[in-house]
């Protein structure tokens, strides 16, 4: 993958910064297909990081370097691409917009100090876009809005701005305002540049790139006047300097730098969202965007650091973004590269990470994700600046900057890197729960071994994936965020030479007796040699749900000698494990041994175990056995417009709605109980039912009898396996 970036011509060495004030960490967030990766490519080409821009259809972009991204024609993981502009290093973090990869987005939000929220002028704002906006809001991320694809014939820039104002504006639409007006060609049908409302400069791309930069033309004066006033009022309404509004209202001309400083304060405070129109294809707007990224966005110095503790959880003072402070860095992402091995993307929050140092790597609180708590001292040999899939060595990485390290023996996503004699710990950020189970089957025995090894490594690197080896259903189940996520993992396993396929996910059912029944077990073999003799009679009674298993004895006159009484129980329990009709374990029954027969020579422990097992099978034939299925409590959160569809769908899944309640922001929370067999694909189906805006969680509630017609089908399927 390093090869491809070289072919495109990476120019120069990686930028290195010495002061956090000269760093901007910006994550690009937005709907899949909005043009984030293309925009990053354009920014890299415009600032000379690469000699020419690659494209999505050709699979040649810097950020979508992964073969899985090329195949899916969309980003599947977080990528970092630094550039330099005006003496500032901007670390662009390109996140995937597709919901399956929300874990990558969350990692990007953790590493960044601001988000460039990308909305396509062709598609506008939809429910998915709103959900992504809320992801940013949940972590208090300062944001600007880039409206992309403004060159497209179906693009509607003005309507998209209006939509953003309606949907993203907090209290008033004056919190979402354009910083630039589009400059049209003479025919008025194509956007050829931008007119800066604060800077009062025009970037004109009529003759291609680089643009001609000039002061505003007189013919723009009228349009500018109104838009500029609205913008200035919007900015100073959010200003910390309360004298500004008075000065402005008294007619004072506020200078450009004052306004830009104020803009930066309002953006950093998360109360103002500037809007910029850009075009990834023609580069129109790129220079305006670079201006905003360097002058309007906060530096890492203005971003409160996540809390740190000692590795034992003992409290520590809040750190600041100081390159001379104690080292605290965090692994935000882990990639397994086929050549380099483990590559860890690292955000340094405090101190300076230098090569050839012994670092302390701590990971706590991720045991449920398959990462047991760990602490290790490790040598960090080299430090790199990542550019998509390319790693360029750098001499150090200061607080506020982002780098990559390789070959760490223990670093997992979410781990803290500190120094040996001052080990520290940051609590990992909130990771989404994988809810789509995919059962995978290796083709051969040797594939099975390779799959186990490779899958373990892949899952360890991705906290949004969970591996389950279900002993009851005998399936290897990979819990993913969605089908594309699963595809990425399966493709990586196949690329590693493992042949595998998927099969329907089975749910662990249970069996139980629904009526009392007697069972006779006779295991008698006395022809030749040492014989076997055991006869027992049992009574089986159903117990209430979750009562487990009870064994009672009512034998009179020593019909079953006392040493064989536990043998019968053992045999019954073994048969309960094997199941009666569909091969699932039997639960919630009481078995009473009330009679039997023994032989002074031929009876044995083994013979009575066999008789116990036969007696239970006999009882099952005489009585009624039912299948129990797990029922989960499900909590769904959807925009109000989808409530009807989700409730209707619940009943088609045999679900019982327990209640609904309004949630903030025109959303509803629906609580229901749904059988787990109806939920195996709910992650995919809820998403399509709610245009990607619905989320859910589930937890096991209890076992309940399965309707007879379904139980019959399950038994049939079990017999066929
Ligand atoms: N005409 C035009 N097409 C664009 C522009 N930006 C992106 N595209 C096209 O739109 C498609 C999607 O662009 P991407 O850059 O992959 O979008 P993305 O936001 O990175 O999407 P995800 O990675 O899935 O989140 C590609 O085919 C691009 O070539 C643009 O400014 N103008
Ligand atoms: Mg992309």
Topology overview:
Blueprint: H1 2-8, E1 23-30, H2 36-46, H3 67-72, E2 79-85, E3 88-94, H4 102-111, E4 114-120, H5 127-138, E5 143-148, H6 157-168, E6 176-178, E7 180-184, E8 191-196, E9 201-204, E10 212-215, H7 221-237, H8 243-249, H9 256-268, E11 273-277, H10 286-296, E12 308-310, E13 328-337, E14 341-350, E15 352-353, E16 357-363, E17 374-380, E18 383-387, E19 390-394, E20 397-398, E21 402-406, E22 416-419, E23 424-426, E24 436-442, H11 445-461, E25 466-470, E26 475-480, H12 483-495, E27 500-503, E28 510-513, E29 517-525, E30 532-542, E31 549-553, H13 565-578, E32 589-597, H14 605-622, E33 625-639, H15 643-652, E34 656-663, E35 667-675, H16 682-689, E36 695-705, H17 708-720
Parallel strand pairs: 1-3, 1-4, 4-5, 5-11, 6-11, 31-32
Antiparallel strand pairs: 2-3, 7-8, 8-9, 9-10, 12-23, 13-14, 13-22, 14-21, 15-20, 16-17, 16-22, 18-19, 24-26, 24-27, 25-26, 28-33, 29-30, 30-32, 33-35, 33-36, 34-35
Helix pairs in contact: 13-14
Bound molecules: guanosine-5'-triphosphate and magnesium ion.
Guanosine-5'-triphosphate (GTP) binds near residues 75, 149 and 279.
Q: Would you kindly provide a written description of the structure presented here, covering whatever features stand out?
A:
By secondary structure, the chain is of the alpha+beta class. The protein has 5 domains: 2-12 and 20-302, P-loop containing nucleotide triphosphate hydrolases (Rossmann fold); 308-426, Elongation Factor Tu (Ef-tu), domain 3 (Beta Barrel); 436-503, Alpha-Beta Plaits; 510-623, Ribosomal Protein S5, domain 2 (2-Layer Sandwich), CATH 3.30.230.10; 628-720, Alpha-Beta Plaits, CATH 3.30.70.240. Helix content is 28%, strand content 32%. The protein has 17 helices and 36 strands. Strands 2-3-1-4-5-11-6 form a 7-stranded mixed β-sheet, with helices on both faces. Strands 17-16-22-13-14-21 form a 6-stranded antiparallel β-sheet. Strand 2 (79-85) and strand 3 (88-94) form a beta hairpin. Helix 13 (565-578) packs across helix 14 (605-622). The longest helix has 18 residues, at 605-622. The relative contact order is 0.09. Residues 1-7 have low confidence and may be disordered.
């Amino acid at each position: 993958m390093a090869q491809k970036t070289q072919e495109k011509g990476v120019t120069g060495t990686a930028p290195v910064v010495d002061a956090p004030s000269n760093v901007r960490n910006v994550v690009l967030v937005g709907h899949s297909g909005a043009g984030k990766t293309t925009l990053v490519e354009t920014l890299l080409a415009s600032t000379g990081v690469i000699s020419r821009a690659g494209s999505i259809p050709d699979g040649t972009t810097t950020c979508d370097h992964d073969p899985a991204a090329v195949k899916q024609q969309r980003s599947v993981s977080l990528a970092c691409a630094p550039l330099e502009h005006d003496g500032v290093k901007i670390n662009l973090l390109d996140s995937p917009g597709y919901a399956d990869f929300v874990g990558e987005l969350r990692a990007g939000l953790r590493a960044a100090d601001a988000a460039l929220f990308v909305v396509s002028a062709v598609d506008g704002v939809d429910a998915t876009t709103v959900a992504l906006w809320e992801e940013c809001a949940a972590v208090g991320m300062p944001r600007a809005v880039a409206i992309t694809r403004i060159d497209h014939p179906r693009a509607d820039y003005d309507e998209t701005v209006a939509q953003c104002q309606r949907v993203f504006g907090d209290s008033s639409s004056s919190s979402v305002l354009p910083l630039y007006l589009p400059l049209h060609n003479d025919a008025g049908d194509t956007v050829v540049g931008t007119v800066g409302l604060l800077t009062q400069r025009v970037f004109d791309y009529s003759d291609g790139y680089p643009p001609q930069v000039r002061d505003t033309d007189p013919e723009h004066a009228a349009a500018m006047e109104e838009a500029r006033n609205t913008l200035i009022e919007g900015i100073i309404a959010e200003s910390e300097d309360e004298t500004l509004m008075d000065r402005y209202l008294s007619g004072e001309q506020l200078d450009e730098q004052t306004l830009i400083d104020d803009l930066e304060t309002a953006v950093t405070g998360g109360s103002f969202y500037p809007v910029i129109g850009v075009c990834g294809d023609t580069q129109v707007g790129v220079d305006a965007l670079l201006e905003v990224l360097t002058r309007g966005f906060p530096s890492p110095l203005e971003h409160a650091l996540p809390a740190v503790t000692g590795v034992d959880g003992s409290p520590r003072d809040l750190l600041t973004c100081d390159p001379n402070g104690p080292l605290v860095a965090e692994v935000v992402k882990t990639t397994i590269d086929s050549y380099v091995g483990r590559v860890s993307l690292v955000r340094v929050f405090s101190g300076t990470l230098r090569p050839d140092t012994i670092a302390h790597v701590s990971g706590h609180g991720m045991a449920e994700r398959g990462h047991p708590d760990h602490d290790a001292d490790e040598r960090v040999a080299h430090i790199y600046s990542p550019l998509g899939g390319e790693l360029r060595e750098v001499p150090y990485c200061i607080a506020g900057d982002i780098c990559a390290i390789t070959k760490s023996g223990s670093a997992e996503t979410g781990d803290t890197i500190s120094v040996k004699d001052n080990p520290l710990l940051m609590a990992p950020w909130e990771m989404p729960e994988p809810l789509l189970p995919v059962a995978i089957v290796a083709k051969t025995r040797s594939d099975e071994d390779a799959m186990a090894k490779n899958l373990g490594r892949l899952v360890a690197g991705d906290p949004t994936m969970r591996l389950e080896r279900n002993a009851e259903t005998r399936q290897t189940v990979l819990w993913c965020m969605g089908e594309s996520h699963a595809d990425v993992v399966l493709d990586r396993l196949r690329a590693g030479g493992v042949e595998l396929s998927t099969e329907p996910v089975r749910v662990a059912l249970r069996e139980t007796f629904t009526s009392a029944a007697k069972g006779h077990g006779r295991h008698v073999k006395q022809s030749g040699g040492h014989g076997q003799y055991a006869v027992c009679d049992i009574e089986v009674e159903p117990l209430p749900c979750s009562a487990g298993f009870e064994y009672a004895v009512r034998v009179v006159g020593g019909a079953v000698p006392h040493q064989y009484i536990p043998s019968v129980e053992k045999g019954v329990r073994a048969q309960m494990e094997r199941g009666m009709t569909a091969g699932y374990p039997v639960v919630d029954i009481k078995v009473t041994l009330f009679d039997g027969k023994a032989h002074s020579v031929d009876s044995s422990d083994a013979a009575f175990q066999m008789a116990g097992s036969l007696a239970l099978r006999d009882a099952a034939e005489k009585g009624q056995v039912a299948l129990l299925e797990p029922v989960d409590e499900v909590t769904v959160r959807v925009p109000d417009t989808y409530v009807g569809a989700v409730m209707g769908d619940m009943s088609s899944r045999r679900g019982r709605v327990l209640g609904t309640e309004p949630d903030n922001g025109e959303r509803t929370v629906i609580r229901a109980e749904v059988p787990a067999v109806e939920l195996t694909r709910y992650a995919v189906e809820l998403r399509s039912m709610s245009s990607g805006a619905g989320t859910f969680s589930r937890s096991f509630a209890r076992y309940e009898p399965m309707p007879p017609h379904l139980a019959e089908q399950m038994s049939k399927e079990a017999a066929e396996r």
